[in-house]
Design goal:
heterodimer; A: about 0% strand; B: mainly alpha; about 0% strand
Chain lengths: ~280, ~325
């Protein structure tokens, strides 16, 4: 064995899988989106899916719902996660283990399990109505159903982001705060001048992850509300699943997949442009 | 000092109700799994466990073969974790330890996929694995042919004058294969591997885990390189250095990665839903998901299913918090 071949041998098993199940599918997805897959064998017809997507009201509904969750749930969750991380990092906190467990426990809960629980909690006869003294049918109201999805997502993912932000907090050098203390900076000033700027890369990372996660939201709306009532909680993920795997139209589903991919790329680029440059 | 006391009090007054609210869904999941339907939907909501856990489990087992699904989940998740650890640590080691042609390009390619949504690949993956697995064979043959052409071109490089146009040769071969080779091979190979409803259908695509490669690379980079060099000078083979020296040193990190890999496989829903239709092959989340939304099901039973898929990890989390958290923060904050 020549020494030059060694690194390739270490890489080979992974690269074969990577090429087959990631590199090639990314390309194939694009190729499929240009094909009419409702005939057999599929024929090359770039207009059929991309033309349809422009005129498809249900697609725009799904896009609107997804972006709605994106602009409401993601900032809400990241703000809450930052507050939690600060609180959990505080010297004044007692019973730290209990609080960490309470907020981090959802990290191990699967989407199917918690979707089932939230579906029960927000049932007309469920615990939420009982606690609030309401008789509101959350899952059959367009706004109510969206609220349930947002609450469920926030419950599941806030602790996850708080873990990452907490790790970021602990990486900030203590000397910075000591110097600020000597200069007479208030805690509030320290937060805005030291903590937040130092957390920028970490928050950016959480933001990118959350956006990609939201763009491909599927399990929660599928199991809690089944995309309904009507199309009120149909996300791009749910719509893609319906088109691809219920209507078996891979070409159209691939076009939707590429819209999701392009959105993810655009958001990532915007974030890099706006926040990426380090001072 | 007095000010600190009031600040601390305010902190706890803010955090305690929030923490209880956060624990409520988990507690109610436990409670509901031990009550009959009528109690779950009655007011006031039961807040303490009842005695119907076994009855609910029997209902769940009758609605869907849940114990078998749990077994499938254990098998799929363990096998996946094991294989993924091997693949990602081998690849991560190569990226951390060696200089070789194409390293920068390959590594950026692997890392770039971290920001690509899973949906971008799910349909072709499904076509590969489930719908017409012959595509898989077509790709293998194609990769062989393409690899052969590439080797031929690499050999031709030694003849002077051609090397400048080498990239053009690769490009032509790749494009020809993509636009002509793949469709033609797809047509020519008209049999089906029938990978659906096998463990492999679930495991194989997920093995392309770039976060794992990145994580293992970071850990191998942090090893003292002089130690590995010394072993090489003593004449140990590269594989031996990897297995006997490098791997044992990163075992704690691998434990963190293993937890995250196992958990992600355990909780995965969409992909197993697509490739597992046979009731006896379904994983626990797919079996559970098939019940939610049906009109005639035992909700107590579904809660038992939720508890059985969640509780072991909650208990593990209590003891292995450090490893869970290490796994979660692996991608982001290290720089």
């Amino acid at each position: 064995m020549k020494p030059g071949a060694t690194p390739y041998l270490f890489l080979l098993p992974y690269l074969v899988i990577f090429a087959l199940f990631w590199a090639w599918p990314i390309l194939d997805s694009l190729l499929l989106s240009f094909q009419n897959t409702r005939v057999y064998p599929p024929v090359w017809d770039p207009g059929v899916n991309w033309g349809r997507i422009l005129r498809d009201a249900a697609f725009w509904d799904a896009l609107r719902n997804t972006l709605l969750i994106l602009v409401i749930q993601v900032p809400l969750m990241l703000a809450l996660a930052t507050m939690l991380a600060l609180a959990l990092n505080s010297q004044l906190l007692r019973a730290r283990g209990f609080f960490r467990f309470a907020f981090f426990a959802p990290v191990v809960v699967g989407a199917v399990a918690y979707s089932a629980v939230f579906r029960l909690l927000f049932n007309p006869n469920g615990a939420v109505n009982a606690a609030l003294g309401l008789e509101f049918n959350w899952l059959f109201d367009p706004v109510g159903a969206m609220v349930v999805i947002i609450v469920a997502l926030t419950w599941r993912w806030t602790g996850y982001n708080a873990i990452i932000i907490l790790a970021g907090l602990q990486n900030i050098p203590k000397e910075l705060y000591e110097a600020a203390e000597i200069d007479g900076a208030s805690p509030w000033q320290q937060f805005w001048r030291i903590t937040l700027p130092s957390l920028r890369p970490v928050l950016l990372f959480c933001l990118v992850l959350s956006i990609i996660g939201t763009l491909q939201l599927f399990t929660e709306p599928w199991l809690i509300t089944n995309g309904g009532p009507g199309t009120a909680t149909t996300t791009l993920g749910v719509y893609l699943y319906r088109q691809g795997f219920q209507n078996i139209n891979f070409g159209y589903a691939s076009a939707i997949a590429y819209v999701i991919t392009l959105l993810a790329l655009v958001f990532s680029l915007i974030q890099l442009r706006m926040f990426g440059r380090e001072p | 000092m007095k000010r600190r006391f009031w600040q601390g009090l305010a902190l706890h007054l803010f955090l305690t109700p929030l923490a209880l609210l956060w624990l409520a869904p988990l507690w109610l999941m436990l409670v509901f799994s031990t009550h009959p339907e009528t109690a779950i939907f009655s007011t006031p909501t039961p807040l303490l466990p009842g005695d119907r856990f076994w009855a609910n489990l029997q209902n769940l087992q009758a609605d869907t073969n849940f114990l078998r699904a749990l077994f499938n989940s254990v098998a799929v998740s363990s096998l996946y974790t094991l294989l993924s650890l091997v693949l990602t640590s081998l690849a991560g080691y190569a990226f951390a330890r060696f200089q070789f042609f194409g390293k920068g390009l390959l590594f950026s390619l692997v890392i770039a996929t971290l920001t690509i949504p899973y949906f971008a690949v799910v349909i072709p993956q499904f076509i590969l694995v489930a719908r017409e697995a012959k595509t898989l064979l077509a790709l293998f043959i194609g990769m062989g042919v393409f690899g052969g052409v590439a080797v031929l071109l690499a050999w031709l490089r030694f003849s002077p004058g051609l090397s400048r146009w080498l990239w053009l040769g690769y490009l032509t071969a790749a494009l020809a294969y993509l636009f002509w080779g793949v469709p033609a091979l797809r047509e020519a190979l008209s049999f089906d591997f029938r990978l659906t409803n096998t463990y492999w259908a679930v495991i194989l695509p997920a093995l392309a885990n770039s976060l794992g490669v990145f994580f293992m690379r970071q850990n191998f980079l942090s090893l003292p390189q002089s130690l590995l060099e010394a072993a090489r000078i003593d004449g140990a083979s590269e594989l031996r250095i990897f297995f006997r020296i490098a791997l044992p040193l990163v075992l704690p990190a691998m434990a963190a990665l293993a937890i995250i890999l196992f958990l992600s496989a355990w909780n995965d829903y969409l992909w197993p839903l697509l490739v597992l239709s046979d009731k006896n092959m379904q994983t626990a989340p797919v079996a559970l998901g098939s019940l939610i939304g049906l009109t005639r099901v035992s909700w107590g039973g579904i809660m038992v299913g939720a508890v059985l898929t969640t509780l072991p990890f909650l208990i593990l989390f209590l003891f292995l918090q450090r490893y869970f958290i290490a796994g979660i923060t692996a991608g982001g904050v290290k720089d």
